[in-house]
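Journal club side-thread
Mid-discussion, someone asked how the predicted structure for our own chain would compare to the paper's figures. Pasting it here so we can look after the session.
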Amino acid sequence: MDTLWIAVIGTSVIAYVLKFSGHSVPEKFLSHPLIKRVNLLIPIALLSALVAVQTVSTKSTIVIDHRLSGLAAAIIALIFKAPFPIVVLSAAISSAAVYNLL
């Protein structure tokens, strides 16, 4: 068997075991206030890390380019509580404008 398939099967087994163990956790453990607070913050932290990595990195290098201006425009739009389509459009337009100027 190829090494790639061993890795795929091993990863699948690990994912299944983790998912099964998550369903096996008692309800009283999950209803603890600290666990609820952590579960609310994990997606926010993961999404923030994804945005940061996708904005300032290309392959294995850190770059400052037009994507950073799009992120800044989106942050400004969010500060002014703009609707989500406006946030996305402002980020896209500012990023495209900076890209065409550079």
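Post-session note: Residues 1-25 form one domain.
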